[in-house]
Amino acid sequence: xxxxxxxxxxxxxxxxxxxxxxxxxxxxxxxxxxxxxxxxxxxxxxxxxxxxxxxxxxxxxxxxxxxxxxxxxxxxxxxxxxxxxxxxxxxxxxxxxxxxxxxxxxxxxxxxxxxxxxxxxxxxxxxxxxxxxxxxxxxxxxxxxxxxxxxxxxxxxxxxxxxxxxxxxxxxxxxxxxxxxxxxxxxxxxxxxxxxxxxxxxxxxxxxxxxxxxxxxxxxxxxxxxxxxxxxxxxxxxxxxxxxxxxxxxxxxxxxxxxxxxxxxxxxxxxxxxxxxxxxxxxxxxxxxxxxxxxxxxxxxxxxxxxxxxxxxxxxxxxxxxxxxxxxxxxxxxxxxxxxxxxxxxxxxxxxxxxxxxxxxxxxxxxxxxxxxxxxxxxxxxxxxxxxxxxxxxxxxxxxxxxxxxxxxxxxxxxxxxxxxxxxxxxxxxxxxxxxxxxxxxxxxxxxxxxxxxxxxxxxxxxxxxxxxxxxxxxxxxxxxxxxxxxxxxxxxxxxxxxxxxxxxxxxxxxxxxxxxxxxxxxxxxxxxxxxxxxxxxxxxxxxxxxxxxxxxxxxxxxxxxxxxxxxxxxxxxxxxxxxxxxxxxxxxxxxxxxxxxxxxxxxxxxxxxxxxxxxxxxxxxxxxxxxxxxxxxxxxxxxxxxxxxxxxxxxxxxxxxxxxxxxxxxxxxxxxxxxxxxxxxxxxxxxxxxxxxxxxxxxxxxxxxxxxxxxxxxxxxxxxxxxxxxxxxxxxxxxxxxxxxxxxxxxxxxxxxxxxxxxxxxxxxxxxxxxxxxxxxxxxxxxxxxxxxxxxxxxxxxxxxxxxxxxxxxxxxxxxxxxxxxxxxxxxxxxxxxxxxxxxxxxxxxxxxxxxxxxxxxxxxxxxxxxxxxxxxxxxxxxxxxxxxxxx
Length: 889
Fold this sequence. Notes:
By secondary structure, this protein is of the alpha+beta class. It has 27 helices and 21 strands.
């Protein structure tokens, strides 16, 4: 008889998807420990939210900074630039003839004297754009000028004159190339003699009013707009020589979004204008400008995308590891029971890792959502604070902002679970028959001590090397080394904290021992379980270190960037005489103008300055000098150190001036003039002024009789720079005198606003770091109370009251939190200064700035956090009856 099994007849049964025992075990464990997992998941969520918010905020800051710098190029697709400024209208025509170019305009301008109703303004003048994409200006009213007798005025100038569209203003210009006469449109009566020519007055009709929403021309008091032909006529009439060349030509393309077309036109433009230095996009131009301010390095990217994200990843890892290790250690008794009923070591190991993976994935996705909502909320409320820069309305959706936090949360959670999973798989089944011991009270070992020592000392050494690399100019490598070294040293300090932190906490507790038995009991608890004490304190240490690091780094960065801006813009405002004497030298600024400046609200000191081009006895490049009294210079200069160096017999040569006039390393300088010669000691300065400073006495020694043709003024720090410059223009317009007003403080203020916005975003991110600290303390303190259930019950049984138990936990929480806060503040000061020094050392000396207010707030918040973190655990402890607690596992 055939005994082999006959296959069943009929349709095959469908294959059922089954869940393996490891997955079932994991899910069951997660359901059983849902309350504890929520605490660990919250730490993962907040940490990944911090990473996501950091990356997205860094993208917003970078984009905003670039947009602010590139505002003058509006929506142009390409920029043809020539650093020597030699491009001509023929080059502009060559650009326009390139296939794929829709429009192109060369940028150059001049000044014109405008008058109406007894008011006179010396106004910057530019040509109307051939395409609206090529100008940052927008029409507030009317149309662009379309004839030689038409002009579009800035809104504030129109308000000053009290004119609107259709009204007329008078324009006065000097014709040095020839006399006015018939055939020259718009010319009125002949005026006075000027510069070897003759003034011509013409009537211009206001065709429109223009606004500058991005403040691209705010430094010069705004610009008026005429037709390109009228601008060329103004330039040609200014002198017999050829009109000045152009530095930039902005280009709009037929297909701006087509990358291949942009690349092809870019190559064609380089060939069409061989005199050009290069062809770039406005974004690339902005990157170059930002890098130029920071000594060739893109500080925005380095500090806020690389360094901040790297530090936040390390902090996320430490917080997650701290919480998850304590969580898994609390379940060792349950894991041993599973071994008793047949679970293998591999199943236990995989179960713990799978639980960590599920927890990390879910919490990371939630953290990304929370971080994104946080940044989006910031963008929505930012306009209410009048930041002075245009921020995007929505967060930038990039793959990096999603994948990096997800990978960080998942991988770091898995890494945190590896050691506990290995320990869990080694638990012997007989361990289930013993009472749960929780964490090892000693928590110390030779291997731990060796690792902590090497990590701390090695990390500090790498961090020091990073600072050295940053100082030498290798900022990319230096910042990477500094972040790596700081992270490793912080890990070493945390790992080794079990050896020394409980003893320090016990000392603090004994200092609080005057509070009675509860304080002494809290001090003893700190020493009884070193690992538990260290785990609880380091949770806050991490958050406080981050907060202290950010505030210290931000304060040092702000001071350094302010010094750099001061060096780049040494004087806030200049008022220059446009009149000349018979010898062609600048005439003195009229007294009536100086009196008018004295009445401008928001304007500080006003001092006269005499400028001259000084000949050198060695035949070298003439030196442009500014003669000013040292006390006067100190009252208006943003670089007071220059005033401190200025004294009779010396000439202060800023770094920029030394480069222009070949004076690097010079010790003395001999200047000659009509009055003779003078030998001056050269004192070098780190500022970026293009003029050297000397005293009026030394100028008179070789060039006597020169009048102060310029006035320097300081703008109050608490006033809006653009408003003050507009007020100055309004004040001098009523004097009947024509002077030039240059408010470099507006450009300086724009850069300062960028720095303030960046640092403001950092302050916003600090609130997330505080949340991480609070959750970390609450988690570890809650778990430590659960671990001490039997211990607390024993204390209750021998007479400790509920109030005393609450007080014991409160003192213990505050002492441990205080120790972590103090150490975190010290570490943060060091790490913050190291980061700022590495990233900004190319700008000069980076001082250690201690933000005392922030430090005090952080310490107070830490103590309150320790107190609050003990409330819920204490409530749970006092609600449990002593007999029931003694019976608990």
